[in-house]
Design a protein that fits this description.
Helix content: 40-55%
Strand content: 5-15%
InterPro entries: Cation_antiport_E
Shape: globular
Number of strands: 6
GO molecular function, one term: monoatomic cation transmembrane transporter activity
Largest sheet: 4 strands, antiparallel
Keywords: Cell membrane, Membrane, Transmembrane, Transmembrane helix
Membrane topology: Multi-pass membrane protein
Organism: Natrinema thermotolerans
Distance between the termini: 48 Å
Length: about 200
């Protein structure tokens, strides 16, 4: 079923409003917060309606919900692990930080999907999205643990698998991703094993 996009966006704004304002967890308070959010969110969504498509496929949105939940779960797990890993590296006497920049080719192509992936990378401690290469459809990613560049790319690939489904991209999670490019070249695996550290293979 296709519906106008701006009212749906207004409802999403209303839900976000409930979280931002921090309503008490009672049905009346949540309902009051949601209605207040509609009063604020619907006019804003209407004013900026040209920024998104006219119609939205609600059925497609409902089918994407499980993948959005999986994305959120995978992102939260990686976020928690990355906090522990970065804390270890900062507090360790040897400061086992070996930064590296890698180029991660993407299978997602829409602006919104690329933006979601790039923001997820930047929000996760220890990694930052530096730039997007439009010609190769790839992200430059800086990581504090460059000893295992594939470990930097692994969670990105997982998020991308779910994003392909969420945003109905042309590619499929079954499509083999192109290999990453490491700016510093190959690393000495013997030296890597001697150094060790949290999160290293």
């Amino acid at each position: 079923m296709r519906v106008r996009t701006w009212p749906v966006v207004g409802v999403v704004f209303a839900v976000l409003w409930v979280f931002v304002v921090g309503q008490p967890l009672t049905p009346i308070s949540l309902l009051r917060g949601f209605l207040s959010g509609l009063i604020v969110g619907l006019p804003i969504a209407y004013v900026f309606r040209r920024l998104y498509g006219r119609r939205l496929d609600l059925g497609r949105g409902v089918r994407a919900l499980p993948y959005a939940g999986l994305y959120l779960g995978a992102f939260t797990r990686e976020l928690l692990w990355a906090n522990v890993d970065v804390a270890y590296r900062v507090l360790s006497p040897g400061m086992p930080i070996e930064p590296e920049v890698i180029l991660v080719p993407l299978r997602v192509e829409s602006d919104v999907a690329v933006t979601v992936i790039a923001n997820s990378i930047t929000i996760t401690p220890g990694t930052v999205s530096l730039d997007y290469d439009d010609e190769t459809n790839a992200l430059y990613v800086h990581g504090v643990n460059g000893r295992n560049p594939e470990a930097i790319a692994e969670p990105i690939r997982t998020w991308e698998d779910y994003a392909l489904e969420i945003f109905a991209e042309d590619a499929s999670p079954d499509d083999e991703p192109r290999p990453i490019v490491v700016s510093g070249g190959e690393r000495d695996s013997t030296a890597d094993r001697q150094r060790g550290g949290v999160g290293d293979d």
